[in-house]
Amino acid sequence: MEGISNGIPVNNCSESEQLVKPYVPLDVASELVTRLYGLKVQSIKELVSYDDKNFHIKVLEDYDNANIKELCPHGYILKVLNAKDSQCESIIDAQNAVLNHLTTNKTVTCPRPILNKGGKFKSLEKLYGKSTEGDEPVSSERPYAFYIVRLYAFIPGKLLYGKSCPVHVWYKVGLLCGTLDKALKDFHHPGYKQVDSLWSLKQIPNLVKYLHVIKGPKRKALINEVIQAFSDEVMSQYDKLPKGIIHGDFNEQNILLEEQANQETAGKDYNVVGILDFGDSHYSCYVFEVSIAIMYMMLEDTVDPLAVGGHVLAGYLKEWKLTDLELSLIKCCVAGRFAQSLTLGEYSYSLDPGNEYLMTSAKKGWSLLENFWRVPKEELYSTWKEIISCYKSGGK
What we know:
Elements lengths: L25 H12 L1 E9 L5 E11 L12 E5 L8 H17 L17 E6 L15 E10 L4 E2 L8 H16 L33 H17 L9 E4 L8 E7 L6 E8 L6 E4 H15 L7 H12 L4 H5 L1 H22 L10 H13 L2 H16 L4
Antiparallel strand pairs: 1-2, 2-3, 3-5, 4-5, 6-8, 7-10, 8-9
């Protein structure tokens, strides 16, 4: 690939104008699928994404790729990674290795990587930026960057986001979370040694650099208070906390549900069937994993968000045990993820105004964080322990 040395080149573009989020019109996405994977596109739909580009592709029966033995019945997901993360090819190799490990062992349902015509799970592609002159032809004057392109088998299901779920779904989310951590306990890949994501909870002390984007002194003071508590309580104990490869972003946009009838209420019920997007997977503390899951399920609960932690923990602890130290830090870790999501969401939105996906957590997150943070730890944990005991006795 031309011009690749230290990082990803962008021509005719200052550093502040670099094309981090790829510009991928539907015709370009179709061309990538055909050229790289030998598949003929029947239909294509763009999906919401934070800073990558994702497409649900359905294909015709005729294809030209010796590495594909049979077509995926539900189609594929084409993922074009953002320019910044595309610089870290070894990390992408690690993510693909995790997915292959899980799908081969059939422990957790997750996207299966697809080999391209060259027998690789990824390729680095030169893509041009959006023209400011309308539909002008691609030329050397157009800014461009290089992006990693991958294809995955599509998993049917409904995203958890926006669903009115009974509380036992939070238990099932915890169960899946614990099952995943258990499945990866002996997994290692050298690529993960290079991961130092801003979204790792251990980076929470660095949120102080972004406090200027928080509007209002009350909110800024709240975030600052959480950051300080996390630094004092969690990071001081960091070396003592058990660690392994974690998903790192167990949120409502990444959890797949299967709808089913509820025989008791004659209404909708859901089964948790899979987890998507391992783009934030990294080597870190297990307590961070379950705390992240609790935080995002709180955003989805419409009845008693403060009780959600008990349901998620009940499921998680059935598959993966936590030490007393880890359990004592969960409240601070959940609050830390709230602070991280709200702050980085505000920061990303300042760079990409109008992208409402970036502000998903903010819709309920500020009030939830304030309420959660003010509840005495003893009171919160007492509620959670009661819920956990109820599951153990078969009462849920």
